[in-house]
Design goal:
Blueprint: H1 10-43, H2 45-53, H3 55-81, H4 85-112, H5 114-120, H6 128-140, H7 142-157, H8 163-185, H9 190-215, H10 230-262, H11 266-282, H12 284-303, H13 307-339, H14 350-366, H15 368-384, H16 388-412, H17 414-447, H18 451-456
Helix pairs in contact: 1-2, 1-8, 1-9, 1-11, 1-12, 1-13, 2-6, 2-11, 3-4, 3-7, 3-10, 3-12, 4-6, 4-7, 5-6, 6-9, 7-9, 8-9, 10-16, 10-17, 11-14, 12-13, 12-15, 13-14, 13-15, 14-17, 15-16, 15-17, 16-17
Length: 457
């Protein structure tokens, strides 16, 4: 049941492990896209803009949850690579306890301050109520985000990247049914789309839990292994918190950018919403590549096979380059048609929205290779156990987006919005690439025997 990523050709291992993860991410994006498509086509551009105006704050909070869970899975992967299964189980148990605590705290805080956050972001008044309804329900569903992402992360750490895909496929079908029923039949509007997303993710998480209990006998714990261990909790937080904060720090820049977009009016918000949904779909292979590199590097560090780290990074860069060329070509040819997935043909000013969305997504995909490097290198560094470095990369992304939002968007408008994220990716790469080489060098020194020990031997 467990897949060993410490032996074999890195390119083949990374590709075969990433493909099932890609399918899972596509299913996850699929039911997110369904939300957007149904909202845009059935409820109109204003409702679409309302959902889109919450995108940055959604990513800030939900991204933190996902990053935290991904971080919690890295010590599990490292113990799998080291073949220390008892310690692996102890890490898994304490990761669950920490996830429960974080889920309760985050749900309480975000739901309470939801209204104030949207006002701080200068959400347009004509879409404020719908935006508030949507994001409030999403925040109430934070526990389901933790449930699925933690369990899926542990399953992947054990070398199984396929199983979570099956549960996401099931939840995607359910999400479509709930979208139509809650919006069309129960007339719940954007709130129905949010409920459908939360319920669907909760079901995929519950399915993961039952599957783990039945199939992964290696996770069966003794009483001692279930105990709360403060030392292990500290290690989990040392890796998990920086990964979560990296998402959030990046999202702060996105939130500032979204605030700048909100000042450009509803048409620009709707265009960025549709463009962002396309971006999230197109970015799935790069996300899968990054998540794969975290597990790959985690297992190989645990096994002490440091030569394979550089080999894996080079293989992931090659895969990222090939996909980036394909994605850019596809959007150059088909961006307007892809935009129509989210638009009602009867929408007023449709041509203007299509033009803005196409400009946004074509510009983004033109810089996909820098993004591919960000994902592969950052997750590799985290898998090596240096997740604190991820915060510095996130800070650089935040600074780049902030500068463009505050100084360039007021002067150049939507054109500046299109270049905000690409400039953030390039800024992050300037730090991450040399940082990865530094991390590998540090690991080599740690594993190198001391001169005195060598003489005694």
């Amino acid at each position: 049941m467990r897949k060993d990523l410490t032996a074999g050709k890195p390119l083949h291992l990374i590709l075969t492990f990433a493909i099932p993860m890609l399918m899972g991410m596509l299913f996850q994006q699929f039911y997110n896209l369904v939300d957007t498509m149904i909202v845009g086509k059935l409820l109109g551009a204003q409702a679409l803009a309302a959902v889109g105006s919450t995108g940055a704050i959604n990513f800030l909070v939900i991204g933190f949850c996902m990053g935290l869970c991904n971080g919690f899975s890295i010590p599990v992967a490292q113990q799998v690579g080291a073949n220390d299964l008892s310690t692996m189980r102890r890490f898994a148990a304490n990761a669950a306890y920490l996830s429960i605590a974080f889920a309760v705290a985050l749900t309480t805080v975000t739901a309470f301050f939801c209204d104030q956050i949207l006002r701080l972001m200068q959400t347009p008044s004509d879409i404020f109520d719908n935006a508030n309804r949507y994001i409030f329900i999403i925040f109430l569903g934070i526990p389901t985000t933790f449930l699925y992402n933690l369990l899926a992360g542990i399953i992947r750490a054990l070398g199984d990247s396929k199983t979570p895909v099956y549960f996401l496929a099931l939840s995607s079908i359910l999400n479509i049914f709930l979208d139509f029923s809650l919006i069309l039949w129960f007339h719940m509007g954007v709130a129905g789309a949010a409920v459908a997303t939360v319920v669907s993710q909760g079901i995929s998480g519950i399915a993961c839990l039952f599957y783990m209990r039945k199939k992964f006998h290696v996770l069966k714990m003794t009483g001692t292994e279930r105990r709360v261990d403060l030392q292990l909790c500290a290690r989990l937080c040392y890796i998990g918190l920086p990964m979560g904060l990296q998402y959030s720090v990046t999202a702060i820049g996105s939130t500032i950018l979204q605030t700048a977009v909100n000042t450009l009016g509803t048409l620009s918000v709707a265009a960025v919403t549709a463009g962002t949904k396309l971006f999230q779909l197109l970015c799935c292979p790069l996300d899968a590549l990054g998540s794969t590199m975290a597990i790959y590097c985690g297992q190989n560090v645990g096994a002490g096979k440091l030569d394979r780290l550089g080999q894996g990074l080079r293989a992931s860069a090659l895969l990222g380059l090939c996909y980036s060329i394909v994605a850019f070509g596809a959007m150059v040819l088909f961006a307007p048609q892809a935009t129509m997935l989210f638009m009602d043909p009867r929408e007023t000013e449709l041509d203007r929205i299509i033009s803005l969305t196409s400009q946004y997504i074509v510009t983004s995909t033109a810089f996909f290779f820098p993004l591919a490097l960000v994902n592969a290198v950052r997750f590799s560094i985290q898998g090596m156990g240096f997740s604190v470095f991820a915060i510095f990369a996130g800070l650089l992304e935040m600074v780049a987006r902030t500068i463009i939002s505050l100084w360039f968007v007021p002067q150049f408008g939507f054109n500046a919005v299109c270049f905000a994220s690409p400039m953030a990716w390039i800024a992050a790469d300037l730090f991450l690439i040399p940082a990865s080489m530094r991390c590998i060098a540090v690991l080599r020194r740690r594993l190198q025997p001391s001169p005195m020990l060598s003489k005694e031997q």
